[in-house]
Amino acid sequence: MRWRSGRRSNNIEDRRSSGPARMRFPFPAGGGGKKGGGISLGSIVVILVLMFVFDINPLELLGGGGTLAPTSSEQSVEPQSSGGQAGDDEMKAFVSVVLADTEDTWHAAFKELGRSYKEPRLVLFRGAVQSACGFAQAAMGPFYCPGDQKVYLDLSFFEDLRRQHGAPGDFAQAYVIAHEIGHHVQNLLGTSGKVQQAQRGVDKSGANELSVMLELQADCYAGIWAHRAESARQILEEGDIEEALRAANAIGDDRLQKESRGYITPDSFTHGTSEQRMRWFKRGLTTGSLESCNTFATNSL
């Protein structure tokens, strides 16, 4: 991906130097909790609620790291942090350029709709973070919080994407960022709120299906960004699209479930299969049109 000469966004909020946030777990009332004791049932419920709010696939916490690793012949050209200041600065610069590029893309797209695009902020954190949606740990992966209109990202996720999920490459990383920005677009357009309202009136299986539609649309929006950014600024290099598709394939619900427990349960899918995620990204990439990303009005996801 051609990114080094790109504009950098001013909407980066770097919280890494403050260290990991800490979550205090309440102990059961009536003297049942002891210092250093286990987490209460109420705390477990809170965590599960947070996972739902953050749009987190719990399989990531159940050992979803058993995905394919890159072979020795693969060459990764993404910016990498070696734990030093130089590596951290390069990764921050990369994220800032990608974020700026999404800003340019969606400002233009919203203008076509006769609307104004409100830029989100992207928070870099390390280990854990507190957001308007609650507390989150890095193991949960990147997420978008509609409460404060911010994307939260621990840069270590990109290393996990490369090592654990077999999806190296700077454009794989850009796809992840663009997907989360896609959720911001959904929030601005009112789609997220409508989905949340609809989920309250259906059972768990129906709510999961709506979640899949929302996630696949965010994948399609990531494709729109790639399409329009390439048309306007020629950012793509050979192999970039394959990197993004490899990432989409690696984090499909079916693949994560198969690798974590050996079987799949489609009714529990919340993000879509590998095939669906790749296909909807490619649809946005091919068309560059918001109308083509209406996952809620199709006979086949």
| Total separate domains | 1
According to DSSP, the number of beta strands is 6
The averaged pLDDT comes out at 83
Q: Report Rg.
A: 19 Å
Query: What shape does the CA trace take?
Result: globular
End-to-end separation in angstroms reads 29 Å
Spatial strand arrangement across the major sheet: 1-2-6-5
Order of helices and strands: EHHEEEEEHHHHHHH
Tell me the β content: 5-15%
- Number of helical stretches of at least 4 residues: 9
Task: Describe what this molecule looks like in 3D.
This protein is an alpha/beta fold. It has one domain (12-21, 81-293). Helix content is 47%, strand content 7%. It is built from 9 helices and 6 strands, in the order βααβββββααααααα. The strands form 2 sheets. A 4-stranded mixed β-sheet has the order 1-2-6-5, covered by helices on one side. Strands 3-4 form a two-stranded antiparallel sheet. Strand 3 (128-131) and strand 4 (134-137) form a beta hairpin. Helix 4 packs across helix 6. The chain is globular. The protein starts with 11 loop residues before the first strand and ends in a 14-residue tail after the last helix. Mean pLDDT is 83; it is low at 23-77.
Q: What is the structure about, briefly put?
A:
With 301 residues, the protein is of the alpha/beta class. It has 9 helices and 6 strands; from the N terminus they run βααβββββααααααα.
